[in-house]
Design goal:
By secondary structure, this protein is α+β, with helices and mostly antiparallel strands. The chain contains twelve helices and 15 strands. Strand 14 and strand 15 (about 595-600) form a beta hairpin.
Length: about 625
């Protein structure tokens, strides 16, 4: 009758678990790919949003740098909002609304995105960055009229041709102030390099408009220096920046050079900066707060590209195909050993077929167990045949002797005298002994061997066994020694234990020569009681040790049942010790004797009442 396997060991459950694990890995791989793809797309989207925000700030800063107020900014806000899809709102520093690209009056964000102030933030020199300083598009009084623009452009064209004659390629650019500027196109070229032929000083000479603005700036600078009690004794040398068209950094020219890093130098620079802001203030719009929102339309902030969709779908399909292939491969590897086991089990029993062990998993363990079972069955079959042969031999000999003597007596050839009867009795005793041993082994094998355990002292048990065999040992001129460490108690059947130790003592005395010693001792080892029977006989060969407890085994094959016993004594010893919950072992060295050790559970002795308790 087949037993139901636990659910956790079911092959179907294992396959399902494997499939679930593979599917989980597949989903994880697909999710990872999707996350990576979407994350990259979101990052690109966020980068684009940041770029749009910086562009909005740049355009509004440019508007403020070129307009004295924010009166007409509404059209610019709507145009930029439509292009970027963002809501754009401007308020004063006190949160008073100035302009809003949205038609509704929804609440503004809690925090402003940036401050639009062209006099303190430069958003044009490096796109995407906010530098401290004045926006170069704020030129104010430095803006050239048409006539001066044309004149400067002609001077720039003359210098460009001069540069070309000297092998220098340049590009003409128009600065926010209207001034023309040449840029050197050679890589790693000095931007201030001018060939001697071209250094006429005309292009960089301030125009009347620029000079007027520089004079006004110089006057504002002197007023600031006077407030700080700094007197240079000469006017501050101011000129026009060739890259912006507005006032450049001041240069210090005096009979006594002014330390630019000193206190006076820093004060002069600070006053020039203050004067520039004071001069440009009427020409630029006042500083405002910039608020950015999501706009009126709910446009999606993320949209996966077609290429990313194809990539995700492709990876998902590939992982699915790998999942099916891996599942099929695992199923084949699991089923193949089972088919081999089925085929081997269907073979005739006498063939004892083995299966190859090709794996180290559960099926491999099953195949190994099947092979071990086959080996045990083959070994048991051989033992069964040998035991039948041994039993027949052991019974045949005494029966043959008894029959022979009875036939001789029946024929009148020999008188049935006491000597004949004694011989027949000896043969009957031997036959009875073999039958009794076989009966005990059969009862032990069937589990019907009855035990009557009780608490007994190990030292008393050893003395009883020694007393039984002391006369035999003295007749064989063998010294018998008994020893015990302390008072040890056993929970065992005393009759069966005396039988067990008696069999071991008989073997020890039988195999010990005259003058030898047989020792019987007991000791405690952890939670076990160890009773050892050792002798100084010939010992047992190493190749014979595994067969010592086999039935009908004899150390010397030449011994008969009269001199060597029936060959069942040690087998009975093992069965009796096992019935008591213990084990029996043997160790031997050829030529030095053997040691049989019986390991039994240790129990606490009975409590002896004291006089006080009585």
């Amino acid at each position: 009758m087949s037993r139901a396997l636990p659910l956790r060991r079911s092959l179907l459950v294992r396959l399902l678990i494997t499939s679930v694990l593979i599917a989980a890995c597949s989903v994880a791989a697909t999710a990872w790919l999707a996350v990576q793809t979407t994350t990259r797309a979101i990052q690109e989207e966020q980068g684009q949003v940041l770029a749009d925000d910086m562009d909005i700030l740049r355009q509004l800063s440019g508007y403020a740098a070129t307009h004295p107020d924010w009166t007409d900014v509404a059209g610019t806000l709507r145009s930029v909002s439509h292009r970027t899809g963002r809501r754009i709102a401007l308020t004063t520093t006190g949160r008073v609304p100035i302009a809003d690209s949205a038609d509704h009056t929804s609440a503004l964000p809690l925090k402003a995105a940036a401050t639009v102030d062209p006099l303190r933030t430069d958003t044009d020199t490096e796109p995407g960055a906010q530098l401290s300083g004045i926006d170069p598009r704020a030129v104010g009084p430095y803006r050239l009229p048409a006539t001066e623009r044309l004149k400067v452009a002609k001077l720039a064209a003359v210098r460009q041709r001069c540069f070309a004659r000297n092998g220098v390629r340049t590009r003409m650019e128009r600065l926010p102030s209207g001034r023309s500027h040449l840029t050197n196109l050679a890589p790693r070229a000095d931007p201030g390099y001018v060939p001697d032929e071209c250094a006429d000083g005309k292009l960089n000479t301030p125009t009347p408009t620029e000079q007027k603005a520089l004079d006004a700036l110089s006057a504002l600078t002197r007023s600031c220096l006077d407030r700080h009690d700094v007197h240079l004794g000469h006017p501050v040398a101011l000129t026009v920046d060739a890259t912006t068209g507005s006032a450049a950094e001041p240069s210090f020219m005096d009979k006594k050079p002014l330390d630019e890093q000193g206190a006076r130098g820093r004060t002069v620079k600070a006053c020039v900066e203050v004067a520039r802001r004071q001069q440009l203030d009427p020409y630029v719009a006042p500083a405002v707060e910039l608020f950015l929102g999501t706009g009126d339309s709910a446009t999606p902030r993320f949209n996966m590209s077609t290429a990313n969709k194809v990539k995700v779908a492709g990876v998902a399909g590939l992982v699915l195909a790998l999942t099916v292939a891996a599942t099929a491969l695992i199923a084949l590897r699991l089923v193949r050993p089972l088919r081999a086991l089925t085929a081997a089990a269907q073979q005739p029993p006498e063939q004892h077929v083995r299966v190859p062990v090709t794996t180290h998993d559960e099926t491999g363990v099953l195949a190994l167990a099947f092979n071990e079972l086959t080996e045990r069955r083959e070994r048991m079959e051989a033992q069964r045949k040998a035991m039948v042969s041994d039993i027949a031999h052991e019974l045949r000999t005494p029966l043959t002797n008894i029959r022979g003597w009875l036939e001789v007596a029946r024929d009148g050839l020999v008188d049935p005298d006491p000597e004949l009867l004694s011989s027949l009795h000896d043969e009957a005793v031997i036959l009875q002994r073999v039958i009794d041993d076989l009966q005990e082994l059969a009862a032990a094998d069937a589990g019907t061997l009855r035990l009557h355990p009780e608490e007994i002292r190990a030292d008393e048990l050893l003395e009883q066994v020694a007393a039984i065999h002391r006369v035999r040992a003295e007749d064989a001129q063998i010294r018998l020694a008994v020893g015990s460490t302390g008072t040890l108690w056993l929970n065992a059947d005393p009759v069966r234990m005396r039988q067990t130790l008696g069999n071991l003592m008989s073997n020890a005395i039988r195999h010990t020569p005259a003058g030898g010693t047989v020792t019987l001792r007991a000791r405690r080892q952890d939670d076990r009681i160890v009773i050892e029977v050792s002798d100084t006989g010939a010992g047992i060969e190493p190749e014979d040790l595994p067969h010592v407890f086999d039935r009908f085994w004899r150390a010397e094959k030449s011994r008969s049942r009269r001199t060597g016993g029936s060959g069942l004594g040690l087998a009975i010893v093992r069965q009796l010790v096992t019935a008591h919950g213990g084990t029996v072992t043997v160790s031997s060295t050829a030529g030095s004797g053997s040691v049989f050790a019986v390991h039994l559970p240790y129990v606490e002795g009975p409590v002896v009442p004291t006089a006080a308790s009585v």
